[in-house]
Design a protein that fits this description.
Blueprint: E1 2-4, H1 7-23, H2 28-35, H3 39-51, E2 55-59, E3 83-87, E4 94-99, E5 103-109, E6 121-124, H4 129-137, E7 150-155, E8 158-160, E9 165-168, H5 180-188, E10 192-196, H6 197-207, E11 215-220, E12 224-230, E13 233-234, H7 266-269, H8 271-282, H9 289-299, H10 303-323, E14 327-332, H11 339-351, E15 362-365, H12 370-395, E16 401-403
């Protein structure tokens, strides 16, 4: 006799939610078949998630609001309309917060979210915790879901996600000195989860449908960071640190980084770094992002920019070689520059990888989907445990299942 642990039910739930998100719309039978799960098991999971409002049932002819309908999801069905399943897109259950170096975004988040980021409200990020918390307290009432299940916060730096603590933040040092999780719980009186910002971006790309491919996500903005998805999950390490590409030192670079080191590639490739290099190369002051865009559009990839891109591409290619990956997803501010920049950068990444000698390296641009990544965390941290508890109560007094080996 072999015991089937309760954890298996949660794994099945997570797999079913992930599959429904990737398909967009599916029947119970579709989900069971695609997951290799029995229809009774899939049906019980679906019923539990419908009861919680995570999944909606819709008629086949009715296009779910906010969903990009795909006519290839299944063959046309005759007779009575089939009851199909979609993740609930109408009823927000979470508040999403993006704590950025210069801006903080807030938005109500439903379960079925796969669109690029669009924050309902943005505020300037102050340089101290009391003012930041006070501004969050004053957020408009219409942002708050009626039945709030949790707050999901994207934060930069090195984050202990399980403990809910920021261990080190090169560009927002004040976050290291307070218990963000506890202070936010005081504001909203619901569970709070902190997610390292690059990991949220990678989860969002995966959640929105990355075709099951492993990838390294690289984001350029106020800093430079990365995260890795392998077999549909975030790459796990024993330390609360991964993907810190921006803090790789560059020989000959004398710029001081917010992390305390000298020469980090982040001081060259971030927004501030690119603007500083452009100003130094052309003897100008206070050149803004739009000015830089226009200059590159008119002049192409100049030597100062090529040198920065070459350096960053070598670091990304090295990460691909070490991790054994062949796909890079680029998000953030580089995508706002003229296409010549991305073409050059992509080419240099491919040139530096070992796998390109034998196979194909894919470098693709993508919008930021941090909100979708936060939803994925909310489902994992708050929804699946809640659904598992509901299933357990319904199954009482039968407390365990057995099968013959």
């Amino acid at each position: 006799m072999v015991f089937i642990p309760a954890k298996m039910g949660r794994i099945n739930m997570r797999s079913l939610v992930d599959r429904l998100q990737s398909l967009g719309i599916a029947s119970r039978a579709d989900l069971a078949k695609s997951l290799g799960m029995s229809q009774p098991t899939a049906g019980k999971i679906v019923d539990a998630l419908i009861g919680l409002g995570v999944i909606d049932e819709v008629d086949l002819e009715a296009k779910p609001q906010g969903h990009a309908w795909n006519a290839d999801n299944g063959p046309a069905r005759m007779g009575r309309p089939a009851r199909m399943l979609v993740l609930n897109r109408l009823m927000p259950r979470f508040i999403g917060v993006e704590l950025g170096v210069s801006k903080t975004g807030l938005a109500p988040l439903p379960f079925g979210l796969d669109q690029p980021d669009s924050w309902a409200q943005c505020i300037n990020t102050p340089d101290n915790a009391p003012e930041w918390l006070a501004r969050l307290k004053d957020c408009p009432v219409d942002i708050l879901p009626e039945d709030l299940w949790g707050v999901l916060v994207s934060v930069p730096g090195i984050v202990d996600e399980q403990a809910g603590r920021v261990l080190f933040s090169p560009n927002l040092h004040w976050t290291e000195k307070i218990d963000l999780k506890e202070r936010l719980q005081e504001i909203w009186n619901v569970p709070v989860a902190l997610v390292q910002e690059e990991r949220a971006l990678a989860l969002g790309h995966q959640f929105a449908g990355a075709n099951g491919e492993d990838f390294l996500l690289v984001d350029v903005g106020d800093g430079v960071g990365g995260a890795v998805i392998v077999s549909g999950r975030l790459y796990a390490t024993p330390l609360s640190i991964s993907g810190e590409l921006g803090h790789t030192p560059v020989l000959g670079n004398a710029r001081r980084c917010g992390c305390g080191a000298t020469g980090c590639v982040e001081t060259l490739l971030s927004i501030r770094g690119l603007l500083q290099s452009h100003a130094q190369a052309h003897g100008v002051r206070d050149a803004g992002w739009e000015t830089l865009q226009a200059h590159i559009r008119d002049n192409g990839v100049e030597p100062w920019l090529a040198q920065t891109l070459d350096t960053a591409a070598a670091i990304v290619a090295g990460a691909l070689n070490v991790l054994g990956l062949r796909c890079v997803v680029l998000t953030g501010k580089l995508n706002e520059l003229p296409p010549s920049v991305m073409e050059y950068f992509s080419g240099r990444i491919v040139q530096g990888t070992m796998w390109a000698r034998f196979g194909q390296i894919k470098v693709e641009s993508a919008p930021r989907r941090r909100m979708a990544g936060l939803v994925a965390v909310g489902i994992e941290r708050f929804v699946l445990p809640k659904a598992a508890r509901e299933k357990k109560r319904e199954a009482e007094p039968q407390r365990a299942r057995w099968y013959s080996a």
